[in-house]
Amino acid sequence: MNPKILIIEEEARLLDQMRDALEQHFGSSCVQYCCSVFEAKEQDLLHVDLVLTSMDLPDGSALDVVENLLVKRNDLPIVVMADESIIELAIQAIKQGAYDCIIRGGDWLTGLPFIVEKNLAVYIVKMENEQLRKRLERTLDQLRVKNEQLEMVVEKLEDIAATDPLTGLANRRAFARALGRYFAASTRDDTDLACIMIDLDGFKALNDTLGHQNGDKLLQHTSRVLQQFLRRSDLAGRFGGDEFVLLLPNTNQQRAIQVAERIQDEFRKEISRQIMDEHDQIKLSMSMGLATLRVSEAKSPQALIECADKTLYAAKRSGKDQLLVYQPKRTAKV
């Protein structure tokens, strides 16, 4: 180890004694020196490993050295040398940022190299800790970025896992989870919950006549029609095949009937314009079964779905292209 030590000392005799003690310990050419605060400020501090400064200087004190040199290089190790009579000033210098204080008395020159060595070791440890801190900050920053990216991927995967790829609606699994939440909220808040099951009449004939590609287009179009009449709090899902299901929270039977009728009217108008005008042999329509929590008195989410599903198939058996509403012991046509 051959450190570069800057001594700031006005008295030539002391300077020579310190230089001899340090060069005997660390090797020759380890010491450079100056005599004042002004000269110290002019030094190239980037190539200095440690500063030894006398407390009393011709143009100031060690306090001025600490203040000025730490402005130029804030990690610079500075050790103050002082007589016992001015120990309070040395303590003040340490409070300002000096590393250590050497009391000039007795055989202090013998211990000087070891004090320098100790403070250089402290400096090295501080620098290593600072490097570790910076590396840790960089690692944490990278970890935060990776976590954000992971959250985005997970969110995207959750969306994919919850979405029917053809229609963009909730798939059956996601719908079942949402139904449980909606049912629990309605039960807790004593509000109504409407469930509408939908089946496309004539869908199989369309597939057989015009092919599955046109069948897929019909399903996509139906999805757009459904979403056109839903609120942000409502949920539309594809139940399977050509079956769809709607959940309308905080919606009573009369309000749900209005929504269902608007959807049916829009479907008839759009399908007539896009398909049936060109293929009059294909008859397309929409059957619906509606059940509400309060009227059905369903005790579970599955029971509410079963009421709506039972009503849907009653609509299909009794002529299709209609909306039926679940009533206890009977099913009412709208």
UniProtKB/TrEMBL annotation:
SUPFAM superfamilies from the UniProt entry: CheY-like (SSF52172), Nucleotide cyclase (SSF55073)
All residue ranges annotated as the GGDEF domain in the record: 191-328
Lineage: superkingdom: Bacteria
Alphabetized GO MF terms: diguanylate cyclase activity
InterPro entries found in the cross-reference section: CheY-like_superfamily, Diguanylate_Cyclase, GGDEF_dom, Nucleotide_cyclase, Rev_trsase/Diguanyl_cyclase, Sig_transdc_resp-reg_receiver
Family matches, as Gene3D superfamilies: 3.30.70.270, 3.40.50.2300
Record-linked PROSITE patterns: GGDEF, RESPONSE_REGULATORY
EC code(s) of this entry: 2.7.7.65
Pfam families referenced in this protein's UniProt entry, alphabetically: GGDEF (PF00990), Response_reg (PF00072)
Catalytic activity: 2 GTP = 3',3'-c-di-GMP + 2 diphosphate
UniProt cross-references to SMART domains, sorted A to Z: GGDEF (SM00267), REC (SM00448)
Regions annotated as coiled coil: 126-160
Protein name: diguanylate cyclase
